[in-house]
Every structure is written in structure tokens, then in C-alpha cells.
Amino acid sequence: MAGVMTEWATRVAETELSAALPRRWAHTRGVAQRATEARRLLGKNGDLLVAAATLHDVGYAPRLAITGFHPLDGARFLRDEHGADERLVRLVANHSFARLEAEERGLRDELASEFPLLEEPLLVDALVYCDMTTTPDGGRTSARERIAEIISRYGTDSVVGRFIRRAAPEILVSVRRIEAALAAQPR
After folding, report:
1. Computed over its alpha carbons, how large is the radius of gyration of the chain?
2. What are the contacts of 58-64 at 24+ separation with CB within 8 A?
3. N or C end of the chain: smaller count of CB under 10 Å?
């Protein structure tokens, strides 16, 4: 059963993404589905995971793309226009090792000062898992296939290509930790 935060997150993400970026909206829905499946690992933070998964790419919405760096643009939108929960905003700002992409873009200090990393490893890993095991169309994939897809879509030498190659080892470790935790859960 969805909580108030997840229902709100779905409304916000759908408003910003569904018409303007239907493929990004499909990815978002898939990431939210992975989060719904993984929420049992997070206990009382399950709703926070689902809300962050639902909003992680909201910064791609054309009207929100101020810097062109979607984690920062999305987090600022959630903070400034919605007064969203600080932990949610920090998860969105830093999802899937965004700090490494921020370095590539010269935005590391800005990201770090406004939205410090959340010191909740299981929650951070769970969001990485949800994002990095979901295709652009919302289907399931492996983290390795997702990384390869991102590199092929953006190009090896692009900002995103350089970032994802740097982040790949950390992404794979995060995904393995969550896959192991899910496998250990009683069915």
C-alpha cells in the first residue's frame, strides 16, 4: 500500500515527465516498481525509497533543466517548489553516484554544499539498484547491461560516458549488495 509520500511523488513525477518525456517516464515507473519490490529491505524507510525512485529523474523535465545536470536540477525543484523532505531531496541529488558526474561537469562543490551525501548506505544502495537494473523503457536488466547501454547511448568520451565508466565499479558493488540482501530475505 502506497504511503502519502509515494502518492505525492507519483503525482509530481507524472506531471513533470509523462507528457514531456514519455520514455523517461517509462524508466521512472520501472525504477519505482523495483523500489516497491525492494522496500521490504528498508523497513520504515521503504516509502522514502519508493518516493526517491519515483522522483530520481524529475530534473530531466524541460522546465526544470536549469543547469542541465538532472540530479541537481531535480533536487532544487523538490526543495524549492515543494519543500520536500530533506532526506528525499538528498537521495535524488546524489542518486547513482551523481557526485562523480558532478565532478565531470564542474558542479561537485555546488552539489556537495547544497545536498550532502546521505549516510544511510542501505538506502543509497537500494536506489542505485533500482535505477541501474531498469532499462530506459522501464524493463528489467542487469547492472552491467545498463552501464553498457548508457555508454552506447551517450558515447564513451561524453560527460555521461566518462562518469558512468568511473562509477561502474561502485554501481556494481551497490547492486550486488542489494541483490544479496534480497536473496537472503524470506519469500
Report:
1. 15
2. 58/12, 58/13, 58/16, 58/17, 58/92, 59/92, 60/17, 60/21, 60/24, 61/16, 61/17, 61/20, 61/21, 62/20, 62/21, 63/16, 63/20, 64/16
3. C
* Cα–Cα distance for residue pair 9/37, rounded to 1 Å: 17
Q: What is the pLDDT of residues 140-185, one digit of tens each?
A: 999 999 999 999 999 999 999 999 999 999 999 999 999 999 999 8
Helices marked H in the chain: 4-17, 22-38, 46-55, 70-82, 86-94, 98-105, 108-114, 121-132, 143-154, 159-184
